[in-house]
Amino acid sequence: MVAGSTLLSLAAAALAVALLVSTSEARHPSPTPPPLPVLPIPSASQLKWQRREVIMFFHFGMNTFTDSEWGTGTEDPSLFRPAALNATQWMDAARAAGASLVILVAKHHDGFCLWPSAYTAHSVSASPWRAGRGDVVAEFVAAARARGLDAGLYLSPWDRHDERYGQEVAYNEYYEAQLHELLTGYGSVSEIWFDGAKGKNATNMTYHFQEWFQTVKQLQRSINIFSDDGPDVRWVGDEKGYAGATCWSAVNRSAITIGEAGIEKYLNEGDPRGRDWVPPECDVSIRTGWFWHANETAKPLAQLLEIYYNSVGRNCVLLLNAPPNSTGLVEDADVAWLREFGRAVDTIFGTDLAAGSAARASSERGGGFEACNVLDGREDTYWAPKAEDGRRNGYWIELRRPAAGRPFEFNVVRIQEHVALGQRVERHAVYVDGAPVANGTTVGHKRLHRLPRPVAGRKVRVWFTARRGPPLLSAVGLHHDPFAAAGAM
Q1: C-alpha distance from residue 302 to each of 46, 54, 310, 362, 489 (Å)
Q2: How far apart are CA 218 and CA 453, in angstroms?
Q3: How far apart are CA 306 and CA 488, in angstroms?
Q4: Section 26-46 average pLDDT
């Protein structure tokens, strides 16, 4: 009997423990894990770059003083004499436009170097500026850091001055040496620009891009490399600042040859079956040319905003060029336009008219992935539906105004995917009180719809098609753009 009593006691104790654990789990349920990524996904540096949204380019050099876009390489260094060069003024212009990264053309196709390179005499050290002891790259980087901006550099592969150009080994060694100078002598560089641009009658030259790329990563591990082929950031395929209406961050790098004609559409739209995460950068100048010319003026605000909607609003980063003049300053009129552009973007997106609304969705994955996450203003939280949901009825998320509150009144819709886990949305459509107002294909980091006219309603629903995996939405916002003209976008 004693043994039986002991067994009963042990069984009772075990039951009590089981009940206690069950009760504890009921009170403290295990968190729902996040969904698996849909490959490819961005690196940490690519994700940081994408969230910048607006960055700045500064084309400045020998062309500034010869009224050219592409120099010949035969220019006399004595022509380079910017009497009032002030890189801090450039940074203030960039900050006014809302930029967080600035990129300098350290050497353009004419081969003139804006730093005192040890490997050529064709540089600022041969000019009268700063009595031959100047260094534009050093002043640029120092001014950027003093204003809280990250710095980037462009080193043109095509060099119309250096006599080694055309000699494959000798020139590639020269170019690598200059990469070492720029990436070891000026601190952290956030982006480096490569392209394949060269004239139709240029000397035949094979660039060792892969060697260059690996050298760059060896010298600066967190840097982003721009080229047609990435590996981190790709060209969008035009110089208008417009991405494709469909724009995937993924491509197959093996399908791209840097500088090759005929790849523009592929670069512009990306590839839903791409194996490599290489998001696009939209480069465009605020003037007609990339370098300063006295007879040119900046694009008006309406055009700059149109570019913003077609770049940032289509899953890209906007690289906006502001060329300093021959005195070494960005024109006052250009600075004024940049400041007006930055204020306009702040005016439009500084207020989210969806704030305070209620959010519900076709389904929710579980705790931590609720529909209301699209309204919290955070990049790291998101709504995730159940996978089965889309296979049955489609995915949707809805914002609703309280019955006692005023209806939504807006003319811009903002949708953002949680791209840290991949890009998924293939198609989407926006409805206000059941009536369609906008539709499109990809979303990515950010998709903006500027409506022809303001709409009002109490219920905004966005439908998604996402066969690559359930859509993960970090934000849905509603805004008013007072600068929108009737019929725009």
Answers
A1: 29, 17, 12, 38, 12
A2: 51
A3: 9
A4: 88
Q: Is 367 exposed, middle or buried (0-12, 13-18, 19+ CB in 10 A)?
A: exposed
Whether the link from the prior residue into 454 is cis, omega within 30° of 0, is: no
The number of CA neighbours under 13 Å toward the Cβ of 417 is 35
Residue with tokens 């995996």: 469
Cβ–Cβ under 8 Å, residues 193 and 152: yes
User: 10 Å Cβ neighbour count for 295?
Assistant: 7
Distance CA(247)–CA(245), nearest Å, equals 6
Which long-range CB contacts under 8 A does 434-437 form with residues at least 24 apart?
Answer: 434/459, 437/413
Residue in this structure with the two tokens 């609304």, named with its chain if needed: 357
Nearest to 274 by CA among 443, 49, 448, 42: 42
The predicted-structure confidence for 378-435, as pLDDT tens digits, reads as follows 999 999 999 877 667 789 999 999 877 789 999 999 999 999 999 999 999 999 999 9
The yes-or-no verdict on residue 186 having pLDDT over 60 is yes
Instruction: Give the length of the chain.
Output: 489
Q: Write the CB contacts of 478 (distance below 8 Å, at least 6 apart in sequence).
A: 352, 353, 354, 399, 408, 410, 412, 413, 414, 460
Distance between CA 262 and CA 396 in Å, rounded? 38
CB 277 within 8 A of CB 40: yes
What is the phi/psi pair of residue 370, to 5°?
-70, 160
Cis peptide before 470 (omega within 30 of 0): no
In this predicted structure, what is the pLDDT of residue 21?
Answer: 39
- The CA-CA-CA angle for residues 317, 139, 328, to 5°, reads 80
pTM of the model: 0.93
Residue 441 CA to residue 426 CA, distance in Å, equals 5
- pLDDT at residue 150 greater than cutoff 90: yes
Which candidate, 305, 298, 402, places its Cα nearest to that of 345?
Answer: 305
Q: What is the pLDDT of residue 403?
A: 77
Q: Which residues pair with 34 in a beta bridge?
A: none
Of the candidates 295, 299, 332, 333, the one whose C-alpha atom is nearest the C-alpha of residue 318 is 299
Is 465 buried (19+), middle (13-18) or exposed (0-12) by CB count in 10 A? Answer: middle
Beta strands 447-457 and 408-417 are: antiparallel
H/E run at residue 2: helix 2-27
